[in-house]
Amino acid sequence: MHIDIISVVPELLESPFSHSILMRAIDKGLVSLKIHDLRNFGLGNYRQVDDYQFGGGAGMVLMAEPLDQLLTSLTKEQSADAIVYLTPDGETWNQSMANGFSLKERIILICGHYKGIDQRIRDIWVTHEVSIGDYVLSGGELAASVVSDSIIRLIPGVLNDAGSALNDSFQDNLLAPPVYTRPSEFKGHKVPEVLLSGNFSAIEAWREAEALRRTQERRPDLLSD
Ligand code: 6GU
User: Fold this and answer.
1) Are residues 56 and 18 part of one domain?
2) Based on the structure, what is the number of domains in the chain?
3) CATH number of the domain bearing residue 147
4) Which of 135, 201, 129, 211 lies closest to 167 in space, CA to CA?
5) Which of 2, 38, 141, 201 has the smallest CB count inside 10 Å?
């Protein structure tokens, strides 16, 4: 899989991909990722990328031309399977969307800033519009990191334990059961006996029951879907 991310603040995207699981996925060659500074396609001596909005109103808008030129150059040799614009008015991202995107070969993510991007780029280029929840972020970069993380960890070979992604919360519309590690007693709180029993079918049954109980308690909406 290859992911291109377009941003006017590329520095915001460095850390999430430089550590832990995502860094190892890149090092192993399971995914390649390139961050593109929109300013390199900016107009004029000042490399301008944004301008006032027609009709007035506060906030700048990312101009169509720099984005169009960058998108043209990115898709010249190979087309993209998805061109995603991260925006609070997009479709709310979820695990089933992440599963679908993990099968794609080539994804382009566009991070908006200020008031967003010129509508014509959305009309001409964008295939998917994605939000990560009902709150406002200062730009699309954190959302692009969230979306990328949720996709990349589903690529076969990225997680060491093959079963690991399948057991995650949401993967089967259930929240994950509680987990414990040493010591078996901590400040008077004991680890549930069954987990120490070595009886794997009993452990599996306990985990399933706990997952269901947690989901009923915290997210009953998941069970009715
Ligand atoms: Cl994708 N972008 C911004 N700016 N804010 C958001 C968001 C995206 N998703 C939720 N809030």
Assistant:
1) yes
2) 2
3) 3.40.1280.10
4) 211
5) 201
Please check whether residues 114 and 196 belong to one and the same domain: no
Average of per-residue pLDDT across 139-160? 96
For ligand 1, the distance from its centroid to the CA atom of residue 77, given in whole angstroms, is 30
Which residues have CB under 6 Å of ligand 1? 86-88, 130-133, 135-137, 139-140, 143
Atom of ligand 1 nearest to the CA of 139: 4
- State the distance from the centre of ligand 1 to the C-alpha of 175, rounded, in angstroms: 24
Determine the atom of ligand 1 nearest the C-alpha atom of 140: 2
Asked if 102 and 22 sit in the same domain, the reply is yes
| Dist. CA 20 → ligand 1 center (Å) | 24
Provide the pLDDT confidence category of residue 161 given band limits of 50, 70 and 90.
confident
Query: Does 161 fall in a domain?
Result: no
Interval between CA 144 and ligand 1 midpoint (Å): 9
Looking at the domain assignment, is residue 162 inside a domain? no
Can you read off the two tokens belonging to residue 24? 């190892």
CB atoms within 10 A of CB 89: 8
Per-residue pLDDT at 163? 64
Residue 189, domain CATH: 1.10.1270.20
Domain that holds residue 116: 2-152
Structural domain contains residue 157:
no
Residue 112 to residue 32: CA distance in whole angstroms: 22
Q: Lowest mean pLDDT: which of 57-66, 100-109, 166-175?
A: 166-175
Give the pTM: 0.94
- How many CB atoms are located within 10 Å of the residue 218 CB? 10
Peptide bond into 183 cis (omega under 30): yes
